[in-house]
Write a structure and sequence with these properties.
The structure holds 2 protein chains of 2 kinds. By secondary structure, chain A is mostly helical. Chain A has helices spanning 2-18, 25-47, 55-82, 90-99, 106-111, 172-197, 222-227, 231-240, 243-260, 265-287, 302-309; strands at residues 200-201, 213-214. Chain A has a two-stranded antiparallel ribbon with strand order 1-2. The N and C termini of chain A lie far apart (92 Å). Chain B is an alpha+beta fold. Helices cover 39% and strands 16% of the residues of chain B. Chain B has 34 helices and 33 strands. Chain B has an 8-stranded mixed sheet, with no helix packed on it. A 5-stranded mixed sheet of chain B has the order 16-17-18-20-19, with helices on one face. A 4-stranded antiparallel sheet of chain B has the order 9-10-15-12, with no helix packed on it. In chain B, strand 32 and strand 33 form a beta hairpin. The two termini of chain B are 33 Å apart. Classes of the chains: A mainly alpha, B alpha+beta. The interface between A and B is large, with 83 and 101 residues.
């Protein structure tokens, strides 16, 4: 039962995407099932003492019921697959219900309640027929070592390769040519774009667009861009040498420390101090380096103060 | 001429044997430097120093210290307030109102000004009076503690602040500050005895923001928070006696790296650069090991620090136990080219730690020993690290450099001896600056000086063997290190100072050899040797007749007498001969060992024992000589021009194993464009074993040869097939292999070959199309994805290659350059340059090498008329905020533009940059580039050469650059290049003054003088009897310093004279006069910036004879009467002058009312000074009467105090 629900859920979403006015067999099937659900909702409402209901509210309740049942199905399926089965058992359903906060113990009593209404089974509509896949060629029979209950081989066209003997593009010269021109095109397009969108300089007074030079813009800290390897080079470096990588992550952290500290000055000092002491202790653990720059900063002594700041 | 203070003669090296005699009347033992506030926002520093000194003379009542640009608040000696005067004559060398524009005059005045504050002459800018309460104390030679409170506001030199203008706190912005300067520059940032010869122990304290680190000399004892916990104080102790000039400081938010190999070594860099720092310094421990091993001496300091900072003054600066490097030396593991350069810088700085920092020098004339030793051991390190080939190549390079410089300028003197103050004994009169002080030296001269020093050390090594050499160094070091651990009282510290005589004595003690002739030749004397050699083979006698001539008459040369090694490669082997070069013998007969019998198939033994097969068909059938080399070991500082046949050069190139010989033969082969030369060069290029630098040189030579034989050249362009074979794919020869720079030798060759190929020209003198396509293909197919190393230098060289291929545009009657008439080849080149330059903005290369090359290439295109010549682009790249290499390249282009287009506007732009740019290195570099590529020169007519420019440059060197020695000397160099030594020709004649005929000692009124001008307000005060002499020196046109010079310029000047004269007649009055007369009378009332205006009306005293500022509008000139006449006269005048001497401005500036004390002392001092001076002058006048009738007293003596002295 849960199984069908699950497929039904999946199916409905499928129809939604498929289009509303279509009247194929699958659609009919779903419509019929929804009608049954509506009957169920109506009868439950009657049972609860309602005499009439607005269509919208019935629709809402139907939707809720359908969702609930779908969820039971989906969840039960997960449980059964979790235990490596394909068919849900009763216990799967029970666990699901418990999980969904439903008191299972009340279920038998509810089922046996006196005023329940019996609804006729929905008319057996024709099962949605999965459209027959286009067969191409003969499916291969199973070889003897495969038991017959195993699924059939897929259609040959799904695995058969058709060798084409055209010259592959593995010629070195062409590849290099391609790589070069591709890179050049990318670069040119990129630089032209940058030039178009930003300020430019030109070597000619009469024509500013043929050889546009991106305008020189001074940096606030020029040495950083000049000395640090670009990201591209960093990648290359990571590829060629993994030991370097550690150091790089180190540096990535360092500016972070600083930006973190950008708040109040007091925080700033303490954070940096921590930072310093951290690195100090880390080194210390490794091989006890006694370097004066790694030693912790001393607290001021009142006595010491005078000779320094007295002047 | 050192008229001030104590006898400079004491510095004479002859006293060296008895130990060092201090030129100062006291001895410094300890100094405390405490900087308790550093403000990055305002770029200011507040602190104090405390010097502990012991008087060495009983009547010490004034103490002179060095201090520049510091504001001094208060001086106390042993807690008693002390009066002080601050007077710095170097601030403005010549007087404001002076119209003298002659470089000779300036150089003399500048040297005098520097002398006047030279601590090695016992002088200083800051003169402190010992309070009378302490006189008794001093007489007992008891200790004095001088406490000076000072501050620095926006220092222009000495300390350099780098404060990037970004958001955030100073630490986040990477703001830092560091000390910098050239030679003794410590006085720029705290008061001290700024001499290399005054050693003391140090306590250094720096209170900085808690996020910053202060790095300084000695051991970091502790770091303590201030009370508010916002700052910390770094306490340093330097127990090894050290000169103030070796004290340094760097403060910034540095990242700290403890050297993993040596934990006492710590490296510092700016934020985010730590990975680079790790890589860059990973090698340093090997340098340490090397030096310690060869010197058999431990590194003298207990710790070592390297700091990498931005906007460095020089790439490497070594200070006691710490070195400051440019941050641009940092590099990652992917960079090839920078690695050896950086390592060399590290090694250089470390060598200077031993010799230069730990061992200091007695006086400036001993500098060569320190520079020589450090350069020499650095050379040994090079030999060990990069191999003998690299070492020999380097030596040759250095030798070529010094030879070229000396021949150009007339000589570099390593050990100048200055006899008692006689300026005209100046051993370097051929130069336009004085070599008496490091601060007056041209920077180029100083670099060449260092270069010569280490080459001379190598010569000494050749003479006494390396073993002895190292023993001498070890002896110096161990003496010094024993001394350094002694207490001050032991008087041992002077052992840490090296002197020329001490060094030579050590050598003779250790080696037992007399190297005096060598020293005399290369150290006490300037100049290099120029040999011309040729030979003939005498078949009959089987003798090689070698003729060696010398040129010792041209400037910068000297005569060589002594042994000279000649190596002759014969068929039977290589033979060394030592010839004695003597006065008159030109011809030398060298017997040959082998007969010319080369029918026998035999291998030929080489010098190194190797035996090789040679194809002997090229050689002369009658001669057994393969090649001849003169002085193969470079044991003389010389230039050799040797003539031998082309096939001999070719044999030498192919078979001689010495890289220097190969290099020489390549250069010689340029003159022999034959197929045989081509073959020899191609073979060398292909030879993997051959030293890569030789192969690189061969590339360029091959290009030249190919151009010379363009009409007969067969086959593809030179080197193309070679390059294809070596670096292109086997299957598709037009495509270069993907980059793999694992073999550095081939990397360098791969980089160089296209650059050389681009120099090829076809019969139309154009770069062959084939070559251009080839280079464009190299760029196109360049693929660095699989490479472990960056290809930025390679790509940059490809752009250089493109630039090399550019030839002048064919211009149809000067049409305007537009895009439409662009040559299609140039269009392709421009396309590449544009793309490269734009890509740099998105993916910048290391040190922006590609941008640099692109800018250069664009300038080449402009210069060749393909692209309109326009400096706008370069000016935008030259702005502050670009990487320094880019800026320099852009500025170089602007300098070139200024020259080619004679643009006044650009010259002004450059000059304003020299004055205003925040980076000292850039300012220095602009001057340097302008000097190298001047817009015009002395004898050239140029619209740029006008009076305003002269004034501007004069102002620049006179007062605009007083905060930076190097910059000032750079300005002097430029002035010299543009105008020469005498008065610039573009100036109008001086309106006033007498024509003094120096030979006849007759004064004639300058005919152009208008009589009123003579009645300058000063005149009446002066005794008429000396009137005539007084006027003598005013006219720089006719009475400039050198008689010879006048002769030289007579023609030129007389033309100017006449034309000016004519102009004068047309003008009603001279603007010069009206302009300047009021200025002079005003000067009395305004206590203005010119500290030297003594001649105010208030001081109309006989004293004026010495110092009177002469007629309005003329130069402030000092003169010296003939010794005989003057001495008695002046002596008699002194008493009268006395009360008015010291503070002539006093009456005008009432606020200086407290100066009685100074008066008194000034007077005493001056009297002493003058006596002294007369003595000197007397001597010197008698000798150089004709040549130099007057000297200039120190401007210092003529200046009044302008210190903010508030004491007393």
């Amino acid at each position: 039962m849960a199984d069908t629900m699950a497929t039904a859920g999946a199916g409905s979403s499928g129809t939604r995407s498929g289009g509303k006015q279509s009247t194929n067999p699958a659609d009919n099937y779903h419509l019929a099932r929804r009608r049954t659900l509506q009957v169920v909702v109506s009868s439950l409402l009657t049972e609860a003492g309602f005499e009439s209901a607005e269509k919208a509210s019935v629709e809402t309740l139907t939707e809720m019921l359908q969702s609930y049942i779908s969820e039971i199905g989906r969840s039960a399926k997960s449980y059964c697959e979790h235990t490596a089965r394909t068919q849900p058992t009763l216990s799967d359903i029970v666990v699901t219900l418990v999980e969904m906060g439903f008191n299972v113990d009340t279920l038998p009593a509810y089922a046996k309640r006196s005023q329940r209404m019996v609804i006729t089974a929905p008319p057996v509509t024709n099962q949605p027929v999965t459209p027959k896949a286009l067969t191409a060629g003969q499916n291969r029979p199973h070889p003897p070592h495969i038991p017959s209950h195993f699924p059939e081989f897929p259609d040959p066209h799904t695995y058969i390769k058709t060798p084409t003997y055209r010259e592959p593009v593995s010629d070195y010269q062409v590849l290099r040519e391609k790589a070069a021109s591709q890179r050049r095109d990318v670069e040119r397009a990129l630089t032209r774009f940058m030039a178009k969108t930003g300020e430019t300089q030109s070597l000619f007074t009469d024509d500013v667009s043929t050889f546009p030079l991106i305008a020189a813009r001074p940096f606030t800290i020029p040495y950083l861009t000049a000395l640090l390897p670009s990201e591209l080079e960093m990648q290359q470096m990571e590829e060629t040498d993994s030991s370097e990588q550690d150091e790089q992550t180190d540096t990535e952290n360092l500016p972070l420390h600083i930006t973190d500290d950008s708040g109040a000055e007091k925080e700033n000092t303490s954070a940096l101090q921590q930072n310093a002491s951290l690195s100090g202790s880390r080194n210390g653990e490794e091989n006890v380096i006694d370097n004066p720059y790694l030693r912790p900063v001393k607290k001021p002594k009142i006595r010491r103060k005078k000779p320094h700041c007295g002047a | 001429m050192t008229p001030t203070g104590l006898e400079p003669a004491r510095m004479n090296r002859k006293k060296g044997d008895k130990g060092f005699e201090s030129p100062r009347p006291y001895k410094l033992t300890h100094q405390v430097v405490c900087i308790n506030n550093i403000n990055f926002q305002r770029k200011s520093v507040v602190g104090f120093v405390e010097l502990t000194i012991f008087p060495t003379v009983a009547n010490l009542n004034r103490i002179k210290l060095n201090s520049k640009q510091c504001r001094i608040y208060r001086v106390r000696i042993n807690d008693l307030e002390a009066a002080f005067i601050y007077n710095d004559p170097t601030l403005e060398v010549c007087h404001n109102e002076s119209k003298q524009r002659n470089l000779n005059y300036f150089s003399n005045a500048y040297a005098a000004a520097v002398s006047a504050v030279d601590p090695d002459a016992g002088n200083g800018e800051l003169c402190i009076k010992v309070p009378s309460e302490l006189w008794k104390h001093v007489d007992e030679l008891k200790v004095l503690k001088i406490h000076i409170n000072f501050s620095l506001d926006q220092p222009k030199g000495g300390l350099h602040f780098v404060v990037p203008s970004v958001e955030g706190s100073m630490a986040e912005r990477g703001a830092h500050v560091f000390s910098c300067g050239y030679q003794n520059s410590t006085r720029f940032w705290f008061p001290c005895v700024d001499s290399y010869s005054e050693l003391c122990t140090w306590k250094l304290e720096f209170t900085v923001d808690a996020a910053m680190v202060a790095v300084s000399n000695g051991d970091l004892v502790e770091t303590v928070y201030t009370h508010d916990m916002r700052k910390k104080t770094f306490h340093y102790m330097l127990t090894i006696p050290t000169a103030a000039s070796n004290i340094s400081l760097a403060i910034g938010p540095f990242e700290i790296l403890v050297d993993p190999y040596m934990h006492e070594v710590t490296h510092f860099c700016l934020p985010q650069l730590l990975p680079l720092l790790k890589h860059t310094t990973s090698y340093l421990h090997e340098v340490f090991e090397f030096y310690e091993e060869i010197l058999t001496c431990r590194y003298p300091y207990s710790c070592f620090k390297t700091v990498f900072i931005d906007e460095a003054y020089v790439e490497v600066a070594a200070y006691a136990s710490m070195s400051i490097f440019s941050t641009n030396l940092l590099h990652s593991a992917m960079i090839i080219d920078e690695t050896p350069l950086t390592r060399r810088c590290l090694a250089q700085s470390l060598a200077q730690q031993f010799f230069g920092c730990f061992i200091s020098r007695m006086s400036w004339s001993d500098e060569w020993v320190l520079k020589g030793i450090s350069g020499y051991i650095y050379g040994l390190w090079m030999k060990k690290t990069f191999g003998v080939n690299e070492y020999r190549h380097w030596i040759k390079e250095e030798l070529d450099k010094i030879v070229a410089y000396e021949l150009k300028t007339g000589g570099v003197l390593l050990h100048p001896i200055f006899g008692g103050g006689k300026e005209k004994d100046n051993p370097a009169s051929h130069l336009h600056f004085s070599i008496k002080h490091p601060h007056t030296l041209s920077w180029e001269y100083y670099t060449m000086f260092q270069c010569k020093a280490h080459l001379v050390m190598r010569l000494i090594e050749n003479r006494i063997s390396m073993e002895f050499m190292l023993q001498v160094f070890n002896k110096l070091l161990s003496l010094a290190s024993t001394a350094s651990s002694q207490k001050f009282q032991s008087h041992m510290w002077s052992q840490m100072l090296v002197s020329t005589s001490g060094f030579l004595k050590s050598i003779s003690n250790v080696s037992g050899k007399d190297i005096q002739p060598l020293i005399k030749q290369w150290v006490d004397q300037s100049g290099v040797v120029k040999f011309y050699g040729s030979f003939a083979f005498n078949r009959k006698r089987n003798v090689l007749e070698l003729e060696i001539k010398q040129d010792y008459t041209s400037p910068g040369t000297q005569k060589y007498v002594g042994p000279l090694k000649v190596t002759v490669q014969e068929l039977d082997g290589s033979f060394n001969h030592t010839l004695q070069i003597e006065e008159n013998s030109l011809k030398h007969d060298i017997p040959c060992h082998s007969k010319s019998r080369r029918n026998k198939k035999k291998k030929i033994p080489l010098m190194n024992g190797e035996e090789v097969d040679m194809d002997l068909s090229a050689m002369d059938a009658d001669s057994p000589l393969l090649w001849i080399r003169i002085d193969p070991d470079m044991s003389v500082l010389r230039k050799v021009e040797f003539e031998q046949a082309d096939f001999m050069w070719q044999y030498q190139l192919r078979y001689e194993r010495d890289v220097v010989a190969q290099h020489e033969s390549i250069l010689a082969l340029e003159k022999f464009p034959t197929p045989a030369s081509r073959l020899a060069l191609t073979d060398i290029l292909e030879q993997e074993q051959c030293f890569y630098r030789v192969r690189m040189v061969a590339c360029f030579c091959l290009a030249k040869i190919a151009n010379s034989m363009v009409s007969t050249w067969t086959g593809p362009p030179a080197m193309k097939s070679l390059f294809t074979r070596m670096f292109c794919c086997k299957t598709c020869p037009n495509i270069v292999k993907t980059n793999n720079f694992m073999s550095f030798q081939s990397y360098f060759l791969q980089k160089t070959m296209p650059v050389a190929m681009a120099l090829l020209r076809d019969v139309h003198n154009l770069c062959p199309k084939e070559v251009l396509t080839f280079i464009l293909d190299l760029i196109k197919y360049n693929d660095n994805r699989k490479n472990k190393f960056s290809d930025n230098y390679y790509r940059a060289e490809m752009i250089d290659a493109l630039a090399n291929s550019v030839t002048p545009a064919v211009s149809v009657n000067n049409e305007v350059r537009t895009l439409d008439n662009l040559n299609p080849d140039v269009r392709l080149i421009l396309e590449e340059i544009t793309r490269f330059l734009n890509m740099e903005k998105l993916l910048p290369s290391y040190r922006h090498t590609i941008t640099v090359s692109c800018l250069r290439a664009i300038r080449v295109l402009q210069k060749n008329g393909h692209v309109p010549s326009d400096p706008t682009l370069f000016k935008s790249y030259a702005e502050y905020g670009h990487f320094v290499d880019i800026r320099i390249a852009a500025l170089e282009a602007v300098v070139d533009y200024t020259k080619v287009d004679r643009s006044y506007e650009e010259l002004q732009w450059l000059l304003s940059m020299i004055q205003n740019d925040p980076v000292p290195y850039v300012r220095h570099k602009i001057l340097n580039m302008l000097t190298k590529n001047p817009p015009f020169t002395k004898n050239m007519e140029s619209p740029l050469c006008n009076e305003a420019l002269v004034d501007q440059l004069w102002k620049l060197m006179n007062s605009g650059t007083s905060h930076d020695w190097r910059l000032r000397c750079g300005a002097v160099d430029l002035y010299f290049t543009l105008f020469g030594l005498s008065r610039p020709s573009c100036l109008p004649l001086p309106e006033l003054g007498l024509v003094l005929n120096l030979k006849e000692k007759k004064a004639v009124l300058n005919p152009t003088i208008i009589p009123e001008a003579m009645a300058g307000s000063q005149e009446p005060a002066i005794n008429p009897s000396i009137h005539a002499q007084l006027l003598g020196f005013q006219n720089p046109f006719s009475s400039s310093q050198d008689e010879e010079e006048i002769d030289m310029d007579t023609v030129h000047d007389s033309q100017a004279f006449i034309s000016h004269h004519l102009n004068m007649l047309e003008r009603p009055s001279t603007p010069g006069l009206s302009k300047f007369r009021p200025a002079s009378s005003r000067s009395a009332l305004i206590a203005q910036h010119s500290p030297g205006c003594d001649g105010t009306p208030a001081t109309k005293s006989p004293w004026g004879i010495e110092f009177a500022r002469k007629g309005a509008g003329t130069d402030m000139a000092f003169f010296d009467l003939e010794g005989k006449e003057q001495a008695p006269l002046e002596m008699s005048l002194h008493p009268a002058a006395a009360p008015l001497l010291a503070f002539p401005k006093e009456s005008a500036s009432a606020k200086h009312g407290e100066h009685h004390h100074h008066h008194h002392h000034e007077h005493k001092k001056k009297k002493k000074k003058h006596k002294h001076k007369h003595k000197h002058k007397h001597k010197h006048d008698s000798k150089d009467k004709d040549k130099e009738p007057f000297t200039f007293p120190s401007p210092a003596s003529g200046r009044s105090a302008r210190s903010p002295s508030l004491s007393d």
